[in-house]
Specification:
The complex is a heterodimer. Chain A is mostly helical. Chain A has helices at 9-15, 20-27, 31-38, 46-56, and strands spanning 5-7, 64-66. Chain A has four helices and two strands; from the N terminus they run E-H-H-H-H-E. In chain A, helix 2 crosses helix 3. By secondary structure, chain B is mostly helical. Helices cover 73% and strands 0% of the residues of chain B. Chain B has five helices and no strands. The longest helix of chain B has 31 residues, at 42-72. The two termini of chain B are 15 Å apart. In chain B, 25% of the residues are buried. Classes of the chains: A mainly alpha, B mainly alpha. Chain A binds chain B through residues 1, 13-14, 17-22, 24-25, 28-33, 35-42, 44-45, 47-48, and chain B through 1, 7-11, 13-14, 80-81, 83-87, 89-90, 93, 144, 148-150, 154, 156-158.
Chain lengths: 79, 158
């Protein structure tokens, strides 16, 4: 369950002065789910990732991004 | 999150998962008495049997009302609120660990045929396997949960 994923949830929350509990309640998950995603302990499902992005009104890429190690090489490199 | 005062159905689901793991640990302990009884003197086995009955009543009397309470607060093991949650994933991982560990345990027992299987009845061996399966589930759940970075001081800031 270690995460090859960076996220900006903490930053987005801080900008809106929200607690983990507030965000959890807004997207119908538990606070523990939010806190484990934030620290990179847990990779969320696509549904939860989309819900978080939708809630903050940003594209999902503005919340989550792959770490350098997890980035695949572009398709052009395979041609 | 307050365990007994979940703020929403998702929190109730998490509480239910934790409660299930705790109940599993206790049932494993009670089940282990069936194995220990054949290894100790009869007088001690009698005491253990009484303790086991008391423990069974405790599990039913304590956990069943809690279980029903959390269900009434919206906790559904396969409800939409639990989909994709951290504890949902933890329970799945724990189940996988327990299955693997139990399989290894059973293979080990079969290898130790002369030492174990030929000396104990099938009932005792079955009790041992059930104890191991339940125990490994509970230990795996609390081990993974305890040693996550979450427990190293991640708190709400706002």
């Amino acid at each position: 369950m270690s995460a090859p994923l960076n996220n900006r949830i903490r930053v987005l929350r801080a900008e809106r002065r929200m607690s983990q509990s507030d965000l959890a309640e807004a997207i119908d998950v538990s606070r523990k789910t939010i806190s484990t995603i934030e620290v990179g302990r847990f990779v969320p499902s696509t549904v939860i990732a989309l819900k978080i992005a939708r809630y903050f009104e940003v594209p999902v890429e503005a919340v989550f991004s792959l770490t350098e190690d997890a980035l695949p090489s572009p398709v052009a490199d395979h041609l | 999150m307050s365990f007994m005062n979940p703020r929403n159905p998702a929190e109730a689901c998490d509480s239910l998962a934790t409660l299930t793991a705790a109940a599993t640990a206790l049932v494993a302990l009670l089940q282990s008495v069936n194995v220990i009884e054949v290894l100790v003197p009869e007088a001690v086995a009698g005491v253990l049997g009484t303790a086991q009955s008391a423990g069974g009543i405790l599990v039913l009397g304590l956990f069943a009302p809690l279980f029903l309470f959390l269900k009434s607060r919206g906790a559904t093991p396969k409800g939409k609120s639990s989909s994709g949650s951290y504890l949902g994933a933890l329970v799945r991982q724990t189940g996988l660990n327990a299955f693997s560990a139990t399989l290894v345990f059973m293979i080990t027992l079969s290898v130790l045929n002369e030492m174990v299987l030929s000396r104990f009845t099938a009932e005792v061996v079955l009790d041992a396997v059930i104890t191991f399966a339940l125990g490994s589930f509970a230990v795996s759940f609390f081990f993974i949960n305890r040693f996550s970075r979450l427990d190293d001081g991640v708190v709400d800031e706002a």
